[in-house]
Amino acid sequence: MSADVAGAERPARHWLFVLSREDALRARTEGRLRLSATGEGRLRRTAAGDGVVVYSPRERNKAGPPVRRFTAAGFVRGEAPYQVEGDVHGSWFVDVELDAGGEPEVQGLLGRLSFVRDAPGWGVVFRPGFLEVGAADHQVVRDAIRQSGSTGALRSGPPATATKEDAVATEKKRDPGPSVKNKKLYEDLRDDGASKEKAARIANATARDGASTVGKRGGSSPSYDEWTVDDLRGRAKELGLSGYSGKRKAELIEMLRDH
């Protein structure tokens, strides 16, 4: 049980944060989770005893090589978020106790997590950067982190220092080639779990027709978020899709974007 701000007990809740691997490893070392100056509201939803899971799409914040792994899990042990005197970034912190272990890939856990669907676009669920998950989901990730650490099957330490040749080879491997016209969007979609083919198709369509046009016919643009449920169902009907009548807004958006 966790205590809320009024002192009353409430059932423990479980939260997923999307942070860089660099920030996740720092949290493991320092015993505190760090968010930006705008992260106070998210941390204030947590309470001592709540579960925490961290997913890292990249090595550093919006930079570095892709990671796409769960990089930390444990529990909140601080009563309230706080700031540190002298921190020029205005960051917010909360004390946590995180498990030792490895860094399991998300794809290895698909089918066992209630909030992730085994689909080419599974990464879309992490886009908000913060979401509540179930107790069973929290336990699945904790077990995977501890087990991967004991078997040594997955990395658990900082990345090795790369040579110039390694960096060039990594860049070539990530480069989708001249046929992809919007490489930044391509990389963002790949980070979200889209296949190479789907990412290339959406990136090229966006470069050719514009993001708003692509979004209206089911691409990656967030314009569908502004549509009403009736409009989304109407669009699904226009596209000849089936099974849309009983779906909620988020499910309709996912259906249209995967079309």
Task: Output the keywords.
single chain; ph1033 like fold; 6-stranded mixed sheet; globular; 2 domains; 259 residues; 8 strands; alpha+beta
Q: How big is the Rg? A: 20 Å
The strand order across the widest sheet is 4-7-6-5-3-8
Top-tier CATH class of the largest domain: Alpha Beta
- The number of helical segments is 9
The total of beta strands comes to 8
Report the sheet-strand fraction. 15-25%
Strand/helix succession: EEEHEHEEEEHHHHHHH
**N-to-C terminal Cα separation, in Å?**
43 Å
**Helical residue percent?**
25-40%
- Main sheet overview: 6 strands, mixed
Categorize the overall geometry. globular
Summarize the structure.
This protein has 259 residues and is α+β, with helices and mostly antiparallel strands. Helix content is 36%, strand content 19%.
Description:
With 259 residues, the protein is α+β, with helices and mostly antiparallel strands. The protein has two domains: 2-151, Roll (ph1033 like fold), CATH 3.10.590.10; 164-258, no CATH class. The chain is 36% helix and 19% strand. It contains nine helices and eight strands. Strands 4-7-6-5-3-8 form a six-stranded mixed sheet. Strands 1-2 form a two-stranded antiparallel sheet. α8 runs parallel beside α9 (249-258). Residues 151-173 and 214-222 have low confidence and may be disordered.
